Amino acid sequence: RPRDKVLAERLRVLNPLVNIEAGDVEDRCDVVVSVGNGREAVEINGRCRDKDECFVAADSFGLFGYIFVDCMDKHGYVEEVRVEGDAGETRKESFVASYVRLQESVRARLEISNVSRLKRKYPPLVFVSQALSVGACKNEEELAAQVEKTLEDRGMPEGVVGEELVKRVASSLGTEFVPCAAVVGGTLAQEVLKIITRKDQPINNWYVYDALQADGIICKL
User: Fold this and answer.
1) Which CA distances in Å does 63 have to 34, 94, 173, 180, 206?
2) Is the pLDDT assigned to residue 107 strictly greater than 80?
3) Residue 137 CB coordination number (10 Å)
4) Residue 157's closest CA among 127, 128, 118?
5) CA nearest to 150, candidates 166, 171, 164, 167
6) Where are the beta strands (DSSP E) in the chain?
7) What is the mean pLDDT of residues 105-126?
């Protein structure tokens, strides 16, 4: 049976007061969330761009997970900022943020060529997540090849992603660690609410979570 219909049935049991539909509903969406779709995510993101729909890609595998957000070229939102001189008082201000599509993010060339500086600014897990977000990998060999290709295509130096990290992520593929999935899923739900309500800025544009380190990091690529 199609996965979306199975999930819809289970969600209706958990949320009886919420209207949950399965099937092709992209034409009626404010935001499209693609979970675990690998290379299909790029195509879905492209269709969302054509329809002016925000797009979110996410996945959780074992001890790791990621979220990618594309809120189009201009996303307006409101934040509460502190008023100078008035302790505790805040006011609402409007802002506009610019996002890029998934394919552009994965191909983006970085100006930093020093490995140590790259690792300080960007967690190596984000490059592994980018490789997984645009291709299906079933084992360590396929993942290592995909990561190497995405880094080479961007002219990045060797050593940015260590073999040990690739090995740990590969061993987690196809598995689920509930606490990790809960953290990534909770963050995903929070970002979807930000997009819909336009209150506070959604992640711009990558979030990666490493349950081994109990650490979630946001970076822009």
Assistant:
1) 20, 37, 9, 6, 17
2) yes
3) 20
4) 118
5) 166
6) 31-35, 54-61, 64-70, 75-82, 90-97, 206-210, 215-219
7) 90
> pLDDT by residue (tens digit) across 136-153?
788 899 999 999 999 998
Q: Other CB atoms closer than 10 Å to residue 127's CB: what's the count? A: 23
| Cβ-based neighbours of 48, under 8 Å, separated by 6 or more | 26, 32, 54, 55, 70
Q: Residue 25 corresponds to which amino acid?
A: V
| Dihedral pair phi/psi, residue 14, rounded to 5° | -75, -30
The Cα–Cα gap between 72 and 52 comes to 7
Supply the pTM of this predicted model. Answer: 0.89
- For residues 14 and 178, which has the higher predicted lDDT (pLDDT)? 178
Strands 54-61 and 31-35: parallel
In tens, the pLDDT along 5-28 reads 888 888 889 888 878 877 665 566
| Structure token pair of residue 124 | 């190596």
Q: How far apart are CA 72 and CA 204, in angstroms?
A: 11
Sole residue written with tokens 């940015």: 160
Q: How far apart are CA 9 and CA 14, in angstroms?
A: 9
ω into 19 cis (within 30 of 0):
no
**How many CB atoms neighbour CB 1 within 10 A?**
6
Contacts of 23 (CB under 8 A, 6+ apart): 4, 5
Distance between CA atoms of residues 124 and 166, nearest Å:
10
Which amino acid type is present at position 215? D
